[in-house]
Hints:
The chain is an alpha+beta fold.
Amino acid sequence: MQFKYFQQPERFAQWLAAPAKCTFCEAEKTCLDGTAFLGTDRFNAICPECLLSAKLLAQDSYTCEGDIEALKHQLQLRKPEKSTKAVRQQGL
Ligand SMILES: [Zn+2]
């Protein structure tokens, strides 16, 4: 299994202990634990094939959460001519 942005997911991802019904394709197979994903849309399980085929794009679910405050600070440093309020409200 190979993901572009995640090396060795079979070792480091959060897998369900037993085969489960994938929320998206409804197949019973080895799945990632959906409760470990972030966002407002909740699901129980997603199989690697559904994850690779971008089933999460239509969901408010994602695998990581960036440091938004650090990003805003970096944007402010890069674009000092922009007001702090503009950066905080809109990004750049
Ligand atoms: Zn699936």
